């Protein structure tokens, strides 16, 4: 299944890539839709990550959003007509991109303003350092918006970032966390005023880029290996198939398109 089969005629958006010396800046840009991502944007992000990962002259990657948000997840309009097969393919694609960020061989810094929701929250969760503005909001509100699920690895990333109880509270309630809450839960490195966040993140990126590359690589690799054993061969495809083939998931997609609140039944 090609995820482009479900694309719509809405503005496709773009993931921009800029380079300043040893620092790369990846910008999620679909500001008219608060940077809700299209299949085209995911493909661009994946291609950028593959290209940058093999660039030995790169020292730091910064990821940010254009306009008034960091990223607000996948554009829900693209889920119309989805089956369990499509859902499994989508989660595999998401996992590939998120793992590409998580396993990126150089430090990844998230510069967050506005909403970091759904996939945007996961992009932030797998970054090595996270700086946000005071008005930033964080969450994965799928329990009240779409009725789908994440992959096992992406659940793990949220637990790693927040701890099991906080991750479950966020997912169970669907509520969005404030920047102050995210800082209190040790999700954020720091809160930076909006007018200063770009300069602050670039300053941190420059500092990292001037340090010993192999020491920084070893630090990332040690953390990756510490977490690798946890998820070895844990089955979850049956759960994703049940979710994406359910009445509730179809209802969530329809309700979003109709701009009404979903009516959940718990029916498969």
UniProtKB/TrEMBL annotation:
Signal peptide interval: none
Pfam families per record: ECH_1
Annotated GO MF terms: lyase activity
Gene3D superfamilies from the UniProt entry: 2-enoyl-CoA Hydratase, Chain A, domain 1 (3.90.226.10), Lyase 2-enoyl-coa Hydratase, Chain A, domain 2 (1.10.12.10)
GO biological process, one term: fatty acid beta-oxidation
Keyword Heme: no
Taxonomic superkingdom: Bacteria
Alphabetical keyword list: Lyase
CDD domains hit by this protein: crotonase-like
NCBIfam families, sorted: PRK06144.1 (NF004796)
Recorded family membership: Belongs to the enoyl-CoA hydratase/isomerase family.
Name of the featured protein: Enoyl-CoA hydratase
Organism: Reticulibacter mediterranei
Lineage: Bacteria, Bacillati, Chloroflexota, Ktedonobacteria, Ktedonobacterales
